[in-house]
Specification:
2 domains, 6 strands, elongated, about 35% helix, alpha/beta, Rossmann fold, about 20% strand
């Protein structure tokens, strides 16, 4: 049996607390297992990345058994998904290496997000050194 959450709203879906006209009612039909209650006092702008990029990264990490401390995770690209991959990887106790074509991402990857290593993938020498020293990367997350 499929559990559905169905509700009617007269609130404008574009936000701002505006009310729609009486003629316009919006019906939302959602499968309950895909619904998550966000606490009233939790800002929407902080919850949105977790529900979008967060679940996009989290699901395959769990599916591929990456929630085991000590494993290695390579993250290719430090965009929105890459940020979440690094954060989840560190939360799971993984050794995280970020690969990026932009040296400007290095400080953020290592200092702000806590990655263990940063490899400038556009630098052939760094890639060669990394490949010879580290043959333990079991799983790469490509965020593009």
């Amino acid at each position: 049996m499929l559990n559905l959450l169905i509700f009617w709203s007269k609130t404008c879906p574009k936000g701002g607390g505006r009310k729609s006209t009486e003629k316009l009612k919006i019906c939302y039909c959602l499968i309950c297992r895909y619904c998550y209650k966000i606490p009233e006092n939790y800002p929407s702008h902080l919850a949105a990345p977790l529900l979008c990029a967060g679940i996009t990264v989290y699901s395959p990490m769990i599916r591929h058994n990456m929630k085991q401390p000590g494993k290695s995770l390579g993250v290719i690209g430090l965009g929105g998904l890459g940020h979440m991959a690094v954060l989840f990887g560190k939360a799971f106790g993984l050794k995280v290496t970020v690969f990026s074509t932009s040296i400007s991402k290095k400080e953020e990857a290592l200092t702000v997000l806590g990655a263990d290593n940063f490899v400038l993938s556009s630098d052939e020498q760094q890639m060669k050194v990394y490949q010879t020293l580290n043959k333990t990367e079991k799983w790469l997350y490509h965020s593009h």
